[in-house]
Amino acid sequence: MDIYNSMVIAHLPKKQKPATHNLLTPLIIKYAEHTQSVNVCSLSAAKKLATFPLYTSKVAAGFPSPADDYIEKRLNPNDYLITNDTSTFFVQVKGDSMIDAGIFEKDILVVDRSRTAQMGDIVLAVVDGEFTVKILNQSEAGVCLIPANKNYAVIQIKENQVFEIWGVVTGSMRKFK
Amino acid sequence: MTRSIALIDCNNFYVSCERVFNPQLVGKPVVVLSNNDGCVVARSNEVKAQGVRMGQPWFQLNNLAKQHGIVAYSSNYPLYADMSNRVMGMLATFSPDIEVYSIDECFLDFSGFKTQDLTLYSQHIRQKIKQWIGLPVCVGIGATKTLAKLANYLAKNNPEFNGVCNFSVMMPQQQNDWFSQIAVSEVWGIGRNLTPKLHQQGIHTVLDLKQANPASMRSRFSVIIEKTIREINGIVCIELEEMAAAKKQIVSSRSFGAPVSDLASLEQAVSLYVNCAVEKLRRQQSYASTLFVSIRTSPFNKKAAYYKNGLTIPLPMQTDNIKLLTKAALWGLRKIYRKGYKYQKAAVVLSELVSANNRQSDLFDSELSGCKSDKLMNIISKINAVMGKGTLKLASEGYRQPWKLRQSNKSSSYTTNWNELIHVTK
Questions:
Q1: Do strands B422-424 and A88-93 pair parallel, antiparallel, or not at all (unpaired)?
Q2: CA pair distance A24, B34, nearest whole angstrom
Q3: Helix (H, G, I), strand (E, B), or coil: what is residue B29?
Q4: How much helix, strand and coil, in percent to the nearest 5, is found in chain B?
Q5: Model's pTM, two decimal places?
Q6: pLDDT at B366
Q7: What stretches in chain B show pLDDT beneath 50?
Q8: How far B133 CA lies from chain A's nearest CA (Å)?
Q9: pLDDT at A176 over 90
Q10: Which residues, in sequence order, are bridge partners of residue B222?
Q11: Where does residue B172 rank: exposed (0-12), middle (13-18), buried (19+ CB within 10 A)?
């Protein structure tokens, strides 16, 4: 590797030689691509080096960006909304039965199937083959699903009903534009 | 050391995927049809109970479907692929050694897990996949891949196993009792052609095959059957392939939405199939040495004349160039095309594939084999990856494509398209 590097460097204009050794990589690549006289072997070796994105700032005159040592991953909404990618699904809300819980028409809900539902959780449930989003609760008569809108009635799950908790609603998304 | 290899197989995979997003289908007879709604490619248990066979043409089932209210879905491969990736991703957390065998099957090596109760562990896997992804799976465990397959077959078809059949905790006599109840045709690698020949030898059950002499069976049939017999006897002959082996050939074939008679439409279809095949070829970084193109009319239409023909075309160089491959395919198509038939299917097969490293270079470094075409191909691939399939294509594929797929009842892409999410209305 060092041999190849020095071969490429030999073609660099003198005043643009890198100041320190660990700056070699980005600079070499930049010039290797424009240097016609580099032999094929060293050019391909230099191009391979291009796959390491070590520095984000361009090195123009040999001075590194003072921020290069402090690079962190940019915020990604996926990390905020999703804890378990494999078991997470999205569904879209139609209707207003959960508006008091901040869930509105057209909102996209984040549903995580890997979580075990606790009483008080907002869940995506299936009652007699129909999807519904409600708050899971327990009454004297057994499991019930409570809407977050006083215009809707509580759904009391009866014994002969087919009832399943599809997943726990862990977040919601809404765009204004 | 005796190995412990598990095969995890999703039950009625395509149907189960549809049911996750449409719970009303649970308990109802459901089938999923092949591309173009031609044949049955997945059946719910309710449909299996009606005697519907795998691969049966859908039009033959019209009456039965009406009578029993069978619901038919067009295949929704984006959905199945995403669900499969979720399952395989989960399975990779249960063992370091895994082989994804197909879209709905996966081998896990549990050989190092001697202290674990593997039956219990497998029940845990089943339960977790059911909860996290909503898909039912069965697990079969044996000392070899062939035994794992057989164990999985038993787990699927015998409720007493509760979805997990583990040969390694069975007494030999008990295993043989089960083997005597399984038809030999269920053994991995024993196909439709071999089964009648085995019957002639008096081999009808798995037990018969297990007790056959491997050496004499090898001389009578092939080395493959010898390996199969040894595998049933617990001797590992087929290892787990952790890296998916690059395919030796790539097939791109489909039935048309409506029968096609004119050459121009066939040319468009064949161009598209070449495009699909080349995409796969380039994804595994291979080059093709030969191309096979074929067309046929419907074998089920008794009124119209039947015609079927194909041509293998050796290529002037090993290539992944879409222009060259399309040119070859269309040249072949024109050779085999006959006027006056209603064509129903076309196929393109790329074979004798070599990896990029083993490719022989061309003595006459023509434009097509050189860097120029590589660059062009790379740009086409990249643009199509970003902007969507088919953004850039050869003009020979045509624009209207009237022969294209019929997908009359496809479910939504619930997990891959923001505009097609489940709507929760209540």
A1: parallel
A2: 56
A3: coil
A4: 45, 20, 35
A5: 0.73
A6: 54
A7: 367-370
A8: 6
A9: yes
A10: none
A11: exposed
Burial class (CB in 10 A: 0-12, 13-18, 19+), B101: middle
Task: Check A84 against B26: CB less than 8 A apart.
Answer: no
Give the residues across from A144 on adjacent strands: A137, A156
Annotated catalytic residue within A97, A106, A139, A172: A97
Mean pLDDT score of chain B: 87
Q: With respect to CATH, is domain A86-173 assigned 3.40.50.1820? A: no
Q: Which residues of B, range 85-114, sit inside 8 Å of A by Cβ?
A: 86, 89-90
* Record: contact A108-B90, CB cut-off 8 A: no
To the query of whether residue A175 is one of the catalytic residues in this protein, the response is no
Condensed to tens digits (0 to 9), the pLDDT of residues B183-239 reads 999 999 888 888 999 999 999 999 999 999 999 999 998 888 999 999 999 999 988
pLDDT at position B365 is 52
Spell out where A81-162 has E strands.
88-93, 108-112, 122-127, 130-139, 142-146, 155-156
- Cα–Cα distance measured from residue B75 to residue B408, given in angstroms and rounded to the nearest whole number: 10
Nearest CA in chain A to B85: A86
* Sequence-separated (6 or more) residues with CB below 8 Å from residue B181: B205
Please write the tens of the pLDDT for every residue from A65-123: 777 778 888 899 999 999 999 999 999 999 999 999 999 999 999 999 999 999 999 99
Residue A145: strand, helix, or coil: strand
What's the pLDDT band for A30 if we cut at 50, 70, 90?
very low
Helix pair A40-49, A24-32: axis angle to 10 deg: 130
Q: Are strands B286-297 and B308-319 parallel, antiparallel or unpaired?
A: antiparallel
Given phi > 0 = left and psi -120 to 50 = alpha, else beta, which region is A95?
left
Catalytic residue list contains A97: yes
Q: What is the pLDDT of residue B244?
A: 56
Write down the domain spans for chain A.
Answer: 86-173
Any long-range contacts for B383-389 (C-beta under 8 Å, 24+ apart)? B384/B279
Task: Note the pLDDT of residue A58.
Answer: 56
Whether the CA torsion B206, B207, B212, B214 is positive or negative: it is: positive
Distance CA A38, CA B20 (A): 59
What is the ipTM, given to two decimal places?
0.74
Inter-chain touch A93–B131, beta carbons under 8 Å: no
Give, in degrees to the nearest 5, the angle at Cα B19 between B17 and B22.
Answer: 120
Question: What is the 3-state secondary structure of B249-305?
Answer: CEEEEEEEEEEECCHHHHHHHHHHHHHHHHHHHHHCCEEEEEEEEEEEECCCCCCCC
B161 phi and psi, to 5 degrees? -80, -15
- Count of residues in chain B: 426
From A146's Cα to the closest Cα of chain B, the distance in A is 12
**CA A163/CA A141 separation, integer angstroms:** 15
Instruction: Read off the amino acid at residue B180.
Output: S
pLDDT at position A15 over 70:
no
Closest CA to B337 of B270, B258, B422: B270
Could you read off the pLDDT of B339-363 as tens digits, one per residue? Answer: 888 898 898 999 888 887 777 666 5
Cross-strand bridge partners of residue A132:
A125
